[in-house]
Design brief:
Blueprint: H1 8-35, H2 41-72, H3 79-113
Helix pairs in contact: 2-3
């Protein structure tokens, strides 16, 4: 491929354009950071906690319901085990819903910034 010869003024303009783009990108990141200054490491850990509780609560409810059924109406099948599995599945669906919701809000926010 032949090399394109540029005049010094064209090179300076190209360098200035690249510099302007980098400054604009950094300013956009700075503004985005100012919007989320309250979101610290503790905020992120809290989000992990929300996902954990979204799975744990339906699982515990399923186990409690299963144990109650096992004590009230004994059978050869373990209702506690069946409801444990159902609680985990419901909890995972619930957690996926929350993650998808937060992800879509982040994507919308990024689109609004651009």
């Amino acid at each position: 491929m032949p090399e394109i010869k540029r005049t010094p003024s064209q090179r300076r303009r190209q360098i200035a354009d690249r510099f302007t783009q980098k400054v604009a990108q950094k300013e956009t990141l700075r503004i985005r950071g100012l919007k989320h200054k309250d979101e610290t490491v503790w905020f992120g850990l809290g989000m992990f906690g929300i996902v954990g509780w979204a799975i744990a609560i339906p699982t515990l409810i399923g186990i409690a319901l299963g144990l109650w059924i096992d004590r009230t109406w004994p059978s050869q099948y373990s209702w506690a085990l069946m409801f444990l599995i159902a609680g985990v599945v419901i909890g995972c669906i619930n957690a996926a819903y929350w993650v998808r919701k937060v992800r879509s809000s982040i994507i919308e926010e990024n689109d609004d910034d651009e």
